[in-house]
Amino acid sequence: MHAAIAPVSTLLRDRRSLYQLAIELLRPSAAVNLEDDAAENPLARHCIGEALAGRASLACADLLPISDLVGDSGRLDAGVCELAVAWRWESNRLLAGALDGVGTGLGRQHAASGPLRLITEADGERAAAALEVLRDGVALARSTSRELIDDLLPHIALVGIIDPPSAGRMASASSRSFPGLVLLESPRSSIEAAEALVHEGAHQKLFELAITRDLLTVHSDESPPFHPLWAPDCHGWPLEQTLAAGHAYACLARFSHDSAASAGGLAVGPDSLLPVANERFEIIAGWLLDRGDHLGADAHALLAGLQGQRPRRGLSTVNSPDRTGGCFTVDPDLQFRRCKDADRVLVGRPSQPPQLFWLEPDAALALELLGQHQPTSQLVDTFAARWDVLPPEAADRVTLLLRELSGSGLARKASGQPQTVR
């Protein structure tokens, strides 16, 4: 479903590169290397995200290893990866901020019944039983739809099993503030566990696509909201939430289809979304297909993979760029990271707070050349040779690169007389 965009290993690598560069920009004098055990911890990723948003500073003590939450007994064999569970008794204290945040969201939906509490090793036999049901859910999911599950589970960094009396009407939940963390009400059956892992794994997958790929555009906030027919009291979902919901329903529909093809299908509970997943995905996909101007290139590819169609663009798409350019300036301390075999470049700007950008290689090269004070006329000659095209075609394409860089704020037009890109 996602192969046209990037394999799992590439997404995980790019996410790691993003967080590592973020740390280097946030703590330039500390020479901190993000260890693997900390890179997977939703708490560490939360602290990095808060610092990038300018809401907090980042301390080395924030980069806790995930083993502080998991311990020796909280890792389940999921075939393609290990599924880590918040198992140590300290988990309720360490994850208090995440539990409170999700609980507050449930309260706004009138779905809470009090503060959320994790089942951990301190709960003895109840904890062991909950862990066994989760293990059975992983096995069922992989036996039913292995390709899908192996594509989603690596993006779940940590599972927290919620004690049912505190869960209210929550079946599963996750928060963008704590990437990689998935909360599940202690599942009563393996199919409940499997469905929850598909649902929340889809959200985690899309989040990592969102921070490493081109899903939205600068015009995404201008899109009108989506009003789900099955939630008439809803005020409307913004585009990003609608894309996330459509993606989750698509994954659930795929799992439902695969389960129907297995031995007699799977018996699901009355609150399961599997029976309605395909219908809801089709409704959302139909709406998204009309939002082509608000969706990035990778969102177009994602919908093509899920729906078989690409979103439609409006008539305002510019086909003939205006070559009137100008002199451009860039920040002198930009940092560039080129991942091995990657087709994009990660660029960091050491502003306060720092900013991170993913660029195509040509755009990154143009930015570097501008940083070397190369005039736009020389850029055209450089790229004409690079692309093996005539200067007029190169001028058009360079203009588009400059427009992209200017739109992101990475390059700024200098004061003075405009010049023509030619």
Structural features, described:
- 47% of the residues lie in helices and 9% in strands.
- It is mainly alpha-helical and 422 residues long.
- The chain has three domains: 1-209, no CATH class; 214-317, no CATH class; 328-413, Arc Repressor Mutant, subunit A.
- Helix 7 crosses helix 9, helix 10 packs across helix 11 and helix 13 crosses helix 15.
- The model is unreliable at 315-320 (pLDDT under 50).
Feature tags:
Arc Repressor Mutant, subunit A, 422 residues, 3 domains, 3-stranded mixed β-sheet, 15 helices, 3-stranded antiparallel β-sheet, 47% helix, mainly alpha, single chain
Task: Please sum up the structure shown.
This protein has helices spanning 8-26, 36-39, 42-52, 67-70, 91-94, 96-108, 125-152, 164-167, 190-212, 239-261, 274-288, 297-307, 361-371, 376-387, 391-408, and strands at residues 75-77, 82-84, 158-162, 172-174, 181-185, 328-330, 335-338, 345-349, 355-359, 411-413.
**Sheet with most strands: strand arrangement:** 3-5-4
How would you state the average pLDDT, rounded? 91
- The Rg value, from CA coordinates, equals 23 Å
- Quickly count the domains: 3
* SS class: mainly alpha
Largest sheet: 3 strands, mixed
Task: Please bin the fraction of helical residues.
Answer: 40-55%
Distance between the termini: 42 Å
Q: Helical segment tally?
A: 15
Low-pLDDT stretches:
315-320
Number of strands: 10
- SS strand fraction: 5-15%
Elements, N to C (H/E)? HHHHEEHHHEHEEHHHHEEEEHHHE
Quaternary structure type? single chain
Q: In one word, what is the shape?
A: globular
